[in-house]
Amino acid sequence: MSTRSLPPEDEPTGDDGRRPVRAAALRAARHVLRAARSALRVLTTELGTPTSPGIPLFDSARRRWARRLPYVVAFGFAVSLLPSGVNVLGNDYGVAGGLAGALATAQSVPLLLAVTRPLQAWWVMFAANVVCAVVLTGVDGVAGRPWPWPPTVIVGYLALMLALSVRERRRTLIAVWLTTGVTGMLFDAVAPERSQSASVLMFVLSGVVLLLGAALRERGDAQRKLQEQETISEAERARRTLLEERTRIARELHDVVAHHMSVITVQADSAPYRISGIPREAQEEFGAIAASARESLAEMRRLLGVLRSEETERQDGPERAPQPGIGQLPKLVEATVRAGVPVELVLPGEPVTPEPAVDLSAYRIVQEALANVVRHAPGAPTRVSVTTTGGGSRLTVLVVNERPAPPLSAPLETSGTGHGLVGMRERVRLVDGTLDTGPLPGGGFRVAAQLPLSAPFPPSGPHPAKDSDAP
């Protein structure tokens, strides 16, 4: 007798039809267990890795009282919560006196440790709170009172949350908050008849305190980083100002040096035509001098092209205006007077012909000093004096402004950056002079520069600054 085999889809399966469902459930369970182990590992890592242990809270504060404030607050909480905790546990909840004292001590004294090691203090206080909750499950005074966290426990725990929030990372705070909530729910599940919603209250209040403290900490971190960036930016601005001023001086000196080099070139080229009877060797020497002067001019122009700033490169053409000097000071003073600053100008009685570099430096020093008066002390009476001292070998430039009268309008700038003095120092250093600046005892400001009438040739090595007010 033959039997007909059934197709696979028609074969009786019994429990085989539930095997795919079971396999899917097992895979889902494995994924859940794997995720739980990973979360537990992260939780353990965060709760076991404190941030900056041993460093007191607010240790970077500038004021001394701010650095002492955490110690005062922690001591106040510990001193007030210790006797209160003993009284609440002993009288209200009916815990034995010795056990109540031990639990209250473990729940309050760690607040002193929280100033330097808040995460370690949390471990101690959290363990003490759990032990206290376990003890309270076996006493009869819990009925009608908060459980598993008594009021003193909640107050001390919130104080600890505040210390944690200003020190630990965000992930650590989340781990602490979740551990607190899960522990409270476990106690509620074990003895639901004793619960008076203290676990929910602890969970919500601790989350609020952690959130506010973390927000304040992150705001303080952002402000510190902003201050650091401002400090870096100010240093970069000072450095850029110095480089721009040196570039400006280089451009101005180009005109001074180019004039002398051009004179040398013309004299060398025209010497054979102006002077008769010059030997051929001398004519060749004059030609070599003129060629060297032209080559030096070309090299100087190439170097100046490297030093020019982008703003100068964008100009329509080269700077062709003659460089100013002491002779242009009356026009400068007149323009300053029109800006509302009364200025008195005193010039030497006899004509003075300083070197071009000294003449330009003296003009720029007065120009920058008057600009500072206009910006910072509008309307202040100012005196500009240019005299010769040292037997006619030195030029003294003095700009003094008095304390301004109550201004009709606010100054253009209320705080100076000191960048204007950078150019003065560089120009004085260039001609081997000295500079003295600073406020006057009765108000006002003083700028005094001593410049040699004949600028010395600078040495080949580094030239130290001679400014009396250099940092």
UniProtKB/TrEMBL annotation:
Reaction catalyzed: ATP + protein L-histidine = ADP + protein N-phospho-L-histidine
InterPro entries for the chain: HATPase_C_sf, HATPase_dom, Sensor_HK_TwoCompSys, Sig_transdc_His_kin_sub3_dim/P
One Pfam family it belongs to: HATPase_c
Gene Ontology molecular function, alphabetical: kinase activity
Family annotation (Gene3D superfamilies): 1.20.5.1930, Histidine kinase-like ATPase, C-terminal domain
Region (Disordered): 451-471
Domain Histidine kinase/HSP90-like ATPase: 361-454
Keyword annotations of the record: ATP-binding, Coiled coil, Kinase, Membrane, Nucleotide-binding, Phosphoprotein, Transferase, Transmembrane, Transmembrane helix, Two-component regulatory system
Residue ranges occupied by any Signal transduction histidine kinase subgroup 3 dimerisation and phosphoacceptor domain in the UniProt entry: 245-310
Protein origin, superkingdom: Bacteria
Stretches assigned to coiled coil: 225-252
EC number annotated for this UniProt entry: 2.7.13.3
Regions that span the bilayer: 69-89, 95-115, 122-143, 149-166, 173-191, 197-216
Protein name as annotated: histidine kinase
Source species of the chain: Streptomyces lunalinharesii
